[in-house]
Design goal:
By secondary structure, the chain is α+β, with helices and mostly antiparallel strands. The chain has a single domain, classed as YjbQ-like (Jelly Rolls). It contains 3 helices and 8 strands; from the N terminus they run ββαββααββββ.
């Protein structure tokens, strides 16, 4: 994880970025462990908020169940709602790439999550997931910011 810490004078705000490769296919990548590792280093048992942000026009952050087929069902739903065909006005990149620019309208590029005692306060089956349908840009940056 890159150490791009920018602390406010009070030390209440901690932030970092990391790079991740998503590949050339639609993906829902579980990044919960990366979020937890960041909180272990920076939250020091405090309560607060974790903001997860992906600064890209074709990716989003979701909180959903993974590993039981729900993540695949989610991606299948996106493919059904947003087919990779020639209907899109945004026409650069690979065929159907315009749909990738619509994804952040449905899957926001950020999520703000509660942190209690330095730990993510997620439900039993919830994970923090990077959603990326853009095979033209497989390299992504994720910003994690803790306020607490």
């Amino acid at each position: 994880m890159a150490d791009n810490n920018h602390s406010m004078p009070t030390g209440l705000f901690q932030t970092t970025t990391f790079e991740i490769t998503t590949g050339s296919r639609d993906v829902a990548l579980d990044i919960t462990d990366r979020c937890a590792a960041f909180l272990d280093q920076r939250a020091a048992g405090r309560d607060g908020l974790l903001n997860v942000f992906v600064p890209h026009a074709t990716a989003g952050i979701a909180v959903l169940e993974t590993g039981s087929g729900s993540d695949d069902d989610f991606l299948a739903t996106l493919r059904e709602l947003l087919p990779a065909d020639d209907r899109w006005r945004h026409r650069h990149g690979s065929p159907g790439h315009g749909r990738d620019h619509v994804v952040p309208g449905l899957v926001a590029p950020h999520a703000t999550l509660p942190v209690l005692g330095g730990q993510l306060a997620l439900g039993v089956w919830q994970s923090v997931v990077l959603v990326d349908t853009n095979g033209d840009n497989p390299r992504r940056t994720v910003r994690l910011s803790f306020l607490g």
